[in-house]
Amino acid sequence: MGLKGFAEGGIASIVAGCSTHPLDLIKVRMQLQGESSAAVQPAALRPALAFQTTAAANHIHNFPTPPPRVGPVSVGLRIIQQDGAGALFSGISATVLRQTLYSTTRMGLYEVLKTKWTDPETKTMPLTSKIGAGLVAGGIGAAVGNPADVAMVRMQADGRLPVSQRRNYKSVVDAITQMSRSEGIGSLWRGSSLTVNRAMLVTASQLASYDHFKELILEKGLMNDGLGTHVTASFAAGFVASVASNPVDVIKTRVMNMRVEEGAAPPYKGAVDCAMKTIRAEGPMALYKGFIPTISRQGPFTVVLFVTLEQVRKLFKDL
Question: Taking CA atoms, which of 83, 113, 169, 180 is between 20 and 30 Å from 260?
Answer without folding.
Answer: 83
